[in-house]
Specification:
Radius of gyration: 41 Å
Structural class: mainly alpha
Number of strands: 0
Length: about 160
């Protein structure tokens, strides 16, 4: 009789589902484990993790993979982060990211200011080159006039070099 029931369940694909339901921990039990793990992290007494107040540490402390909290039990993850914020403490990882962001913004502001300074310098130097070019042309013309030199314009050849003509 038992074999017939097994074969019937196996044939319908329900045996694996029944086995899975029998071995799956109860949701309330999981919630309790996650909440206890979160409380240990908040109290600063972790047993299985580094004690950081992050979802990774919470998953490690609860003995589950991270995706369990980020995909399946998002409510437990959100509750944990709400409890962290309620304590008025910012997780070390968030503090680190905020510090890095502030440093990056500071460096960007410095780079933009340096870029503006260089752009202004390039424009000023370009104006100086233009003024010096005009002054040089005027001085060459003045010197040529004083020495009585005249410039003969270049006349292109009408025949190719080495040709007869």
């Amino acid at each position: 009789m038992m074999i017939d029931k097994y074969h019937k369940l196996k044939h319908n694909g329900q045996y694996e589902q029944a086995q899975h339901r029998a071995t799956r921990p109860d949701r309330r039990c999981q919630e309790h484990d996650h909440q206890a793990a979160g409380q240990r992290l908040l109290d600063g007494t972790p047993l299985h993790s580094d004690g950081a107040r992050t979802v990774v540490a919470l998953a490690t402390e609860a003995g589950v993979k991270r995706h369990v909290l980020t995909h399946r039990h998002t409510d437990l993850k959100d509750e944990f982060y709400a409890r962290v914020r309620a304590q008025g403490q910012v997780p070390a990882s968030e503090t680190k990211v905020r510090d890095e962001l502030a440093e990056t913004k500071r460096k960007l502001a410095e780079a933009l200011e340096h870029n503006k300074t260089l752009t202004d310098t390039v424009e000023r130097l370009a104006r100086m080159v233009n003024v010096l070019t005009v002054e040089n042309a005027q001085l060459v013309e003045q010197q040529d006039n004083q020495l009585g030199r005249t410039l003969t314009p270049f006349r292109p050849r009408t025949t190719p070099p080495g040709g007869t003509g």
